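Retro notes, item 3 of 5
We never archived the inputs for the adenosine-5'-triphosphate complex last cycle. Fixing that now. Sequence and ligand:
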Amino acid sequence: MTERKTVLIRYDEIGLKGKNRKYFEKCLLKNIKRELSCSDDISYRSPRGRILLDIPSSFAQECTTRLKKVPGIASFSIGVSMAPDFEAISALGVQWIEPKLLSAGSMKFCVRTRRSAKSFPQTSPEVNFEVGSRIMKQLSSKGLTVNIKEAEFVLEIEIGRLETVVFDNREPGLPGLPVGSSGNVLCLLSGGIDSPVSAYMMACRGCRVHFVFFDNQPFLGRGGYDKVLRLAKKINRFQARATLFVVPFQDMQSAIRDHCNEENRVVLYRRMMYRIAEEIADRYHFLALITGESLGQVASQTLENLAAVSCVTTLSVFRPLVGMNKDSIINKAIEIGTYETSIEPQPDCCSVFMPKNPVTRSKIPFLERDEGKIPWEELRDDALTRMEIIKVDDL
Ligand code: ATP
Ligand code: MG
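Structure as it came back at the time:
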């Protein structure tokens, strides 16, 4: 039994990044190191096109679970690092295959070699043959056959310039770009199903996603607040180092409710949220706003209303869910583990103040006329002064 294992990590899209490749690789390596910092017994190296880790065997399971949370990994394998010696590799193959073969009675297998060190004297097909025939010599009488197309067991050999890794498994990773490689963005995070999914999607595009929650707790109790804290923490598992801004929104909402046209309320709330979010983004140099809006999902998400909201800010506004239907958003939320928290009962910030007939095609001059009836700049600045700033890593 080997005491140490080697993890071979394949990048996702970084592989395509020409001159910036080093930068993306560094980001990914840093994120992996942070994710695995619970063990101090790991050595890291990054030969061209791969990241290799040397871990204690006992850490393999935990390592697998953790690597699946790091965006930017196409797949990874856990195996053994050894000299490119055909006898030794075949012996290891026999050791792995034999117990499975004996319990199954017969098995189809093949050897697959990838040779990144082109200086290695044999070609990949030659290595396949050398190792495969040695294994067959020992196990063909026990029911082992070679079948490249329908192999039930694939022994993989990756021959690098400095080391060779042998493995029999491939775990899918979390594709996309390494967090931090694109920049910082600010996600408007409500307690619902959609916005956590949109934050996650941007994290997988290399963004570090920070959060802003507009809290109207005096009306709703602490439920929404606690929920958002937990959601932020769950999404932060994919990235780390996020900040959550909690903005007291009750005064702004009450002013809108009491002085503006009822049918415009939701769009007006949203315009104020965007304005406050823009102020925060400017202060912290965040490069875009992210929301969980999806076209046509509710009255406030028609093309006209989305435009009426976007136009209050000069920042880019990204809505990664815009083309998704609710079912696929829900499936994604289940997959990333936010759904259970999102569906806990909580009166939505806007639904408490929901108009009976919300406008579906708002007209900017009418919205501006409504906004003229309240001291919104003052309310915005006051909310920003009272804003709570939370480091999500510390939660
Ligand atoms: P969800 O709440 O899951 O985003 P939803 O369908 O309830 O989905 P809406 O309430 O219409 O969405 O809100 C649209 C978007 O506006 C949200 O996805 C979120 O980005 C933002 N938003 C709404 N309410 C708040 C809030 N209280 N704090 C921060 N962002 C909010
Ligand atoms: Mg909502």
